Structures are given as C-alpha cells and as structure tokens.
Amino acid sequence: MISWTDHASMMLPEDPLHPVPWTRMDELSAKLRIDVPISQPVYGMVETALRWKNTDASKKIEVYTTGERFESSAIVGVYKVTDSNDYRITLHCFNKETSALKNALIMTSRIEWKSPKTTVFFNAFHADLLSIVNECLSTHKFQIFTKRNCIYKWKSPEQLVEHEISRVG
Asked: Can you tell which superkingdom this protein's organism belongs to (predicted)?
C-alpha cells in the first residue's frame, strides 16, 4: 500500500503541490463542507472529482494540497481542458497563513507557466486570496485580461426558508 507521502514523492518529489490521493478525497470533502460558503468552489471541484472517479473524465481534475494535514494547508483544484494548456484553478486556505499557497503556486511545475500557449483562469476564490493570485500571475509574467470581482451574498438557511414560505404563501 502506498502512503500519502509515498504517492506524492513518486509523482514529483520537489513540487510543493502534493496530489490528494483518492483514499483521502472523502475526508477532504468533509473538511471543506465545514467551511462552506468560503470553500464552495473547491468543495464543488472535489465533489465533481469524486463523482467522476473511475471514468476518463476523472483525469481532467486534479486536487492538490500544500501539506499532509488539511487543517493547516491550502487546497488547489485544477481542471485541465483536454489537449490544451488551459487551466481552471480554484483555491482554498483552511487558515489565515497563506505563504505556503503563494510559494506553491509560484514554484509548482504542475502548470506549464512557461508555455506561451498556457491560459490560466482562477475561478471563484475568497477575496483574501486575490493578492496571492495577482502575485502569482505577475511572477510568471502573465497578463491579466479580465478581472471581475463578484461579491456573493450567501443566504442563511433561515433566509432560504423565509423565501420559500413567502413564495408559496
């Protein structure tokens, strides 16, 4: 049996982004669910990966962590468009310490940063991580074509119930 660290070291021993093995995806999903709505984009990507498990589509989504203990790590979800250098990336930090995430994004070889054909879309991440995304893109000399700040106002379960009652009545 391969342990988490053995699996990660077999892939790319020097890379700061370690793949989350399938055996730990349910555990990660449960931890992300606790942080919803802040973790919603990464949680959704993990749930999609679990749904796609054992299919050809499962090769399109990779989920990485900056450390073995999820509670003190950052999670990076990467959806790679087939036969291209187009990446859709979403991020989540379980704590306020974001330096590991910043260093991992800057140093990782899991994204082909040097290819002129590479396009990276950072999708739906918490506003606290915007400076990390900007620094990562500028470090790799990526031009930002569009930057859209959408503020989502999440309704509480009580507000959703109120809305449903007022719609029905």
From this structure: Eukaryota
Total domains in the fold of the chain: 1
Tens digits of residue pLDDT in 80-108: 988 888 999 999 999 888 999 999 999 99
Distance CA 80, CA 120 (A): 10
Whether the bond between 37 and the residue before it is cis, its omega within 30 degrees of 0, is yes
The answer to whether the beta carbons of residues 79 and 52 sit under 8 Å apart is: no
The domain that holds 16 is classified in CATH as 3.40.630.30
Tell me the pLDDT tens digit for each residue of 4-41. 444 444 544 589 999 999 999 999 999 999 998 889 99
